[in-house]
Amino acid sequence: MAAPDTAPLWTALEALPRPTLAQLFGDAARLDRYVTVLDLPGGPIRFDWSKTHLSPEVEGVLGDIGAAVDLDASREALFAGALINNTEGRAATHMAERGVGNPAAAEEAERFHERMQALVEVIHEGLLGEVKSLIHIGIGGSALGPALAIDALAREDAKVAVHVVSNVDAAALAAATAKCDPATTMIAVASKTFTTTETLMNATSALDWLREGGVEDPYGRVVALTAAPEKAVAWGVDETRVLPFAETVGGRYSLWSSIGFPIALALGWDGFAAFLAGAAAIDHHFLEAPAAENVVIRAAFADLYYTQARRCASRAVFAYDERLALLPSYLQQLEMESNGKRVTAQGAPLPRPSAPVTWGGVGTDAQHAVFQLLHQGTHLIPVDFLAVSVPGHDFDPAHHRTLLANCFAQGAALMAGKPGPDDMARDYPGDRPSATILCDELGAATLGSLIAFHEHRTFVSAMMLGINPFDQFGVELGKAIAKSIETGGASFDASTEALLEAAGIGR
C-alpha cells in the first residue's frame, strides 16, 4: 500500500504563525492543557510541556497528519502483535513482557518470566552456592538497559552486586573482575542472537578468569540470556541456565525480558515485578487515553514540531538526579537507532528530517559545561529536564533543594531570557523551549514508567514519519568491515590501510 501524501500538511505546519512562549502563556488555560499528572504505580509523575511551542493550532495540524497516516491503527497493530516490523517480518512484542497486548505473546512472556524468577530465587536462597557478584556481559540494548536500572535502583542494598561490561576493550572487563571474587561470582551472557562478537569475546575471557581463579566448572557459573537458546547450549551453557525471550522483542526494547535478569537478581523479584508494572501503566495510558490527554502523543508532537517545522537537529535531555545519570545514554540508542533512518517503511527515500541527535547529561554538572550553548548559542535545541521530588540520599536537604531550584531555574531562564541593552554578550534571547518531567520518588515502578513513556514517544514519531523504528540495519556495515579486517581478505581506502599499518594490525 502506498504511503499517504502528507507533504501539504507538513508544509502547513511550517507555515503556522510562531508566537513566543511568553505570548502563549497569555492563555490562562495553558497549564491546564499542557501539564498532566498521572497517578502511576510508583507515585505521581508530572509531565509539563507548557514551556514548548505547542498550541491548539500546532496540535491541530499534527493531529491531521496522525489521521492521514492512521496513527490509531498503527498503535492498535503494535499492541495486537501484528507484523509491524515489516522489513524483518516480525511483530514488536516488548509490551507483552509487561503483560499488555497480544494474549499469546503475553502468555509466552509470563512462562519465560516464571523460569527466570525460579533461577533468581534459587540463587538468592544459596542453592547454587554463595553468589555475591554477577558480571553481566552484553552490548547495546543488552547492556544499556540493565546498566541504567542497576545504577538507578541498586546503588545500595543490592541482593547481588552487578557489574555490567559492554566494551570489547578488555579494560572494562578488568575493572569489573577487579571488584569480584571468582569463587562467588556468576556470569550472565546477554545476546539476542548469541553471535555478537564483542559479547562472546568478553564472555570467553570471563570464563578464563573464572578458571584461573580456581573455578573447576566455569560454564556452570554462566547464565545465558538470549532469543537463540540452542546456540547458547552449543556454546557450552547448561540448558537449565538458559533464559530465553521471544524473537519479536528487539534488543533496545528487551530489558523487560530475560535481559532484565541482572535487575531481578539485584532488586529481588518483587522489585522487577514493580518495574514491569510501572511500564504497563504507561502502556495502558498510551493505548487508552484520548490524544488531547495523552502525554506520549503530546511529547511526540512537540518533538516533531521542532524537528520538522523548526529544523532542530538535536534534542537535549538533562537528568537532575544522579541516579538517572545513564538515562541520556539509554535514550540515545532508543531514539537514534530506532528513528535514525533515511528511508520509509516502504523503502522510499524519506523526504523529511528523521530523528534528531539525542544528547544530554546530568544537572548540575551540565550547567557548567554545555548550557552556554543552550542559552546563547545559534542553535535552537529543545530540552527535557527530569527531576525527582524525594532525594535518593540522607544528607542535608539543602542539597536537594539547590538541585531542584537549579533545574526549574534553567527552564525558566531558557523561556524568559534577559535583555542586555548595553552589552550583547550579556543578552539572553529567551524563547527557548523545554519540557519537565517531575517524579515524586524514584523506585522501580517509576523507572519502568519513564522508560515505557520514551519507548512509545519514539514509536509515535516513527509512525508519523512513516518509518520502521524496529530494525537497525545501519549498525551492520561497520561490523561487517571489522570482520573483514580480522580475516584479512579485503582491501580498503588508503587512509584505512595506513591506519591499520600504523596500529600494527597485521593482516
Order of neighbouring strands in the sheet with most strands: 1-2-11-10-8-9
The CATH topology of the largest domain is given as Rossmann fold
Strand content is: 5-15%
User: Any idea how many domains?
Assistant: 3
Helix content range of the residues, please?
Answer: 40-55%
Extract low-pLDDT stretches.
none
Describe the 3D structure:
By secondary structure, this protein is an alpha/beta fold. It has 3 domains: 7-69 and 289-471, 3-Layer(aba) Sandwich (Rossmann fold), CATH 3.40.50; 101-273, Rossmann fold; 474-507, no CATH class. The chain contains 19 helices and 11 strands. It has helices spanning 7-15, 21-24, 30-34, 56-68, 71-80, 103-124, 141-153, 170-177, 197-212, 229-235, 261-267, 269-288, 295-309, 327-339, 371-376, 398-416, 444-465, 476-487, 494-502, and strands at 35-40, 43-48, 133-137, 161-165, 185-190, 222-226, 242-244, 314-320, 357-362, 383-388, 434-439. Helix 11 (261-267) packs across helix 12 and helix 12 (269-288) packs parallel to helix 17. The longest helix has 22 residues, at 103-124. It starts with 6 loop residues before the first helix and ends in a 5-residue tail after the last helix.
